Amino acid sequence: MMKILSFNNKEEIKAFFRQKVKELHPDKGGCIEKYLILQNWYKQALEQFRNENKIKISKISDRYVGYGNSFYKTQKFTIKELALGLEKELTLPLKENPCPYCEGSGINKHSLKKTCSYCHGEGILKLVSGNEEVIHNCTFCAGVGYINIERCSHCFGKGKIKEEIPLKIKLPFGLRQGDILCISGETMGVCWNFYIEVEVEPHPFWRLEGDNLICEVKVPFYEILLRDTLEVETLEGIERVPTGYFADGEPVVFTGRGPFLSDESRLRRGDLIVNLKTLFPKTLSLEAETLLYNFKNLIERERLC
Ligand SMILES: [Zn+2]
Ligand SMILES: [Zn+2]
Question: Where are the beta strands (DSSP E) in 187-236?
């Protein structure tokens, strides 16, 4: 009877592999062919989960950044990306390849050489065991008798170079300037974590303030009286607001139309608060001033204000 295995996550695959390895390992009398098939299957099975949007992303509230093997960078985000938790393409070192300049050795082969102090430049080591003398290659200099004194400058002697690869991530809600986003490397098959510091790209008339998005609408003073509506750019696009809404000088609040907040389970949103900023000329021509006086007198006569 054929049994079809199905796995919901990497942990289930790992558990199955560990159990099977015990049965099939050649050291424990298992069949080598079956063991190699299992090894191959394991690699492929993990691969299928690698890119399946199971990337673990979290916001770090304190400024703790992990020690050791980690990658850190500052990344610019638009206010819209942060407010709506949109997808963002980041370029991250997600792969490690052997350094092509030193072929993975970490050594600059063209640098000055120093005689190997282990074999005194002979490249061989003699070991005496009983009456016999055993000769083998010096392990310290790999049998060449010298050591290059400089490390490879391309990989800083590591022998490996990280390759930057674009990766799309869904931004968590509630990110603000200076927050640090932690992307777990484990979920992407690398042994280092990524720490991304959020830098908010300045916007000409939007700014994030606490739970809300503040929008400033700049309008020349006469347009306020002449236009029926004003254009307001919301997170969902441009909307028209009756100019009269601003008549009392208070901001117009679009309740629940601001940024999504970090409380994802209830999908709460902050408000969009629209402030009207009136623009007026620094100087007036005599003609314009006279007309304005006439206008003022008319308004006062009609008791409109
Ligand atoms: Zn190198
Ligand atoms: Zn040597």
Answer: 193-200, 206-209, 212-220, 229-234
Going from the Cα of 136 to the center of ligand 2, the distance in angstroms, rounded, reads: 11
Tell me the CA–centroid distance for residue 142 and ligand 2, in Å: 7
CA 28-34-38 angle, to 5 degrees, is 95
3-state helix, strand, coil in the chain (%, to 5): 25, 35, 40
Q: Which residues contact 193 (CB under 8 A, 6 or more apart)?
A: 66, 69, 70, 71, 182, 183, 184, 185, 186
159-189 residue pLDDT tens: 999 888 898 888 888 889 988 888 888 777 7
* Strands of 212-220's sheet in order across: 206-209, 212-220, 272-279, 252-254
- How many whole angstroms from 138 Cα to the centroid of ligand 1? 23
Distance 51 CA to ligand 2 centre (A): 46
pTM for the complete prediction?
A: 0.64
Q: Please, what is the angle between helix 10-24 and helix 32-50, to 10°?
A: 170
CA of 116, nearest ligand number: 2
3-state class (DSSP) for residue 25: coil
